[in-house]
Amino acid sequence: MASNIATLGVMLEAYHKLRPPTLKSVTELKEALQVIWDSLPQEPINKAIRNFTLRLKRCAEAGGGHFEHSK
Length: 71
Description:
mainly alpha
């Protein structure tokens, strides 16, 4: 299930490797992250949101306990 969220992480990391930032402030970091986020395709983001919603539901059903391999 975590693959969609991991995909976003991989995309962020790949972008960073292509364009390593030379940041001098928190403001510059925020701006760089916004540029990266804006460049991501929307579909993997949508999948990650749907996946996370399902994970939250399963976590609640498990009473907050382990649920990864219970179904």
